[in-house]
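To the wet lab folks,

You asked to see what we're planning to order before we commit. Fair enough. Below is the target structure as tokens, and below that is the sequence we designed to fit it. If anything looks off to you, flag it before the synthesis order goes out.
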């Protein structure tokens, strides 16, 4: 896990020539961490698997990691994990 010192929303435009076409994307966040910059895109699990979204995230990852930065995609937790978190919260309130 990173120690985040600063968060920037929609920090910059990524522009690259991919397969002869100029592609553009604005990531959701840039985290400035003790281990270096982390570029974050946020997308629901149902959309991450769509081909056009997967394609965009793949070339974004290549561009970002070529700079020596990290790239991550965050989504909501799976339903079972979310239910476990809610259960643990209820139990901890009863203690």
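Sequence we intend to order:
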């Amino acid at each position: 896990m990173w120690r985040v010192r600063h968060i920037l929303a929609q920090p910059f435009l990524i522009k690259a020539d991919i397969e002869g076409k100029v592609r553009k994307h604005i990531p959701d966040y840039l985290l400035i961490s003790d281990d270096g910059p982390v570029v974050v895109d946020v997308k629901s699990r149902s959309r991450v698997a769509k081909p056009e979204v997967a394609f965009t995230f793949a070339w974004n990852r290549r561009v970002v990691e070529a700079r020596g930065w990290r790239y991550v995609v965050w989504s909501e937790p799976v339903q079972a994990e979310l239910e476990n978190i809610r259960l643990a919260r209820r139990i901890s309130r009863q203690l």
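Structural context that might help your review: Residues 51-66 form the longest helix (16 residues). Residues 67 and 95 are 48 Å apart (CA to CA).

Thanks,
Computational group
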